[in-house]
Amino acid sequence: GTSMATNPNAMKTLASNTIFTNVALTDENDVWWEGMTSEPPAGTLSSWLRKEWRAATADEPAAHPNSRFTTPAAQCPVIDPAWEAPEGVPISAIVFGGRRSSVVPLVYEARSWQHGTFVGAMMNSETTAAAVGQSGVLRPDPFAMKPFCGYNIADYFGPVSYT
Predict the structure, then answer these.
(1) How many helices (H) and strands (E) does the chain have?
(2) Cα–Cα distance for residue pair 92/56, rounded to 1 Å
(3) CB–CB of 16/22 below 8 Å?
(4) Distance CA 127, CA 141 (A)
(5) How many whole angstroms from its chain centre is CA 32?
(6) 40-77 pLDDT, tens per residue?
(7) CA 5 to CA 79: how far, in whole Å?
(8) Which of 30, 24, 31 minimizes the C-alpha distance to 51?
(9) For residues 54 and 59, what is the distance between their CA atoms, to the nearest angstrom?
(10) Could you tell me how far CA 109 lies from the centroid of its own chain?
(11) Where are the alpha helices (DSSP H) in 69-160?
(12) Cα atoms found within 13 Å of the Cα of residue 56, Cβ hemisphere only
């Protein structure tokens, strides 16, 4: 799970003005999910199903494996100061990611912008708790984002210029 150890900038970004889904609530009405801290909070939590949850007696996770948050990008401590500039900001790299438990290297470099676009477009990911059906099934899915795209993704990329 996301934590100060795995992604401190994300944790700083979501410190306020954030909407959480499918997370547990502590006695203090704060959010919690597995992996957020090294140990679960003491006491009784309210699970993502809003059932009482105690770490010592739990037979299921407090948070759904697909718990999420959304928060204003401006809160990110490392965002480019000109990120909202109408003329945009220079792009010197595009990082594609996905979910693969084995075989594929975590990072590799494309030979050109065109090759990088091809690599990103043909990327496969393993399904996760976000997708309907079995987890771990390999399918074409750059960024492992198909479960979150409720629109024609081609419309999103339509105005992008690759020159």
Answers:
(1) 3, 8
(2) 49
(3) no
(4) 9
(5) 16
(6) 999 999 999 999 999 999 999 999 988 889 999 999 99
(7) 19
(8) 24
(9) 9
(10) 22
(11) 113-121, 153-157
(12) 3
pLDDT tens, 80-94? 999 999 998 888 877
Q: Which of 70, 30, 59 is nearest to 46 (CA)?
A: 30
- pLDDT confidence band for 132 (50 / 70 / 90): confident
Angstrom distance (rounded) from CA 124 to CA 137: 10
CB contact at 8 A, 9 and 76 = yes
Dihedral sign computed on CA atoms, order 141, 142, 143, 149: negative
What six digits make up the tokens of 157? 């990329």
Can you tell me the distance from the alpha carbon of 41 to that of 20, in angstroms, rounded to the nearest whole number? 18
Residues 32, 9: Cα–Cα separation, whole Å: 17
Residue 54 burial (CB count, 10 A): 13
Contact residues for 146 (Cβ-Cβ < 8 A; gap 6+): 131, 139
DSSP 101-116: SSSS-S----SSHHHH
Tell me, letter by letter, the H, E, C secondary structure of 54-67.
Answer: CCCCCCCCCCCCCC
Joined together, the tokens standing for residue 19 give 């909407």
pTM listed for this prediction: 0.69
